[in-house]
Amino acid sequence: MTTVPRVGDRAPELDLPDQHGERRLLPELVADRHLLVVFFPFAFSSICTGELLEIQLNIDEFVNDRVQVVGVSCDPTSSLRAWAAQEGYRFPLLSDFWPHGRAARSYGVLDEGTGAATRGTFLVDPDRVVTWSLVHGPGEERPIGLLHEAVRGL
Question: Which domain of life is it from (predicted)?
Answer without folding.
Answer: Bacteria
